[in-house]
Write a structure and sequence with these properties.
87 residues, alpha+beta, two-stranded antiparallel ribbon, 7 strands
């Protein structure tokens, strides 16, 4: 299940194209639940891309610098040691 929170965005639909026409200082949140697929690969020369897919085919991709990817790996390792989620 994919949820999007697009607070105070303004879009224009013209000739079949969607364009954001509001201020550029807006934020959005995307969340993907019930992930069924995970893909990790190189992205360009300096990044790692992690992709997540749910049962409906919704997908989120995140491009990280190597240190950010290492931080995620360390966080998962710490959870494995201390969290009942991994029991």
């Amino acid at each position: 299940m994919l949820t999007l929170d697009l607070d105070d965005f303004t879009f224009e639909l013209k000739d079949g194209a969607i364009k954001h026409v509001g201020p550029s200082n807006r934020t959005a949140t995307a969340k993907l639940y019930d992930v069924e697929g995970v893909d990790v690969r190189e992205y360009g020369d300096k990044r790692v891309k992690i992709g997540f897919t749910d049962e409906d085919g919704s997908e989120i991709e995140v491009a990280l610098f190597p240190e950010q990817a290492r931080e995620i790996a360390r966080g998962v390792e710490m959870l494995e040691e201390d969290s009942p989620v991994f029991e």
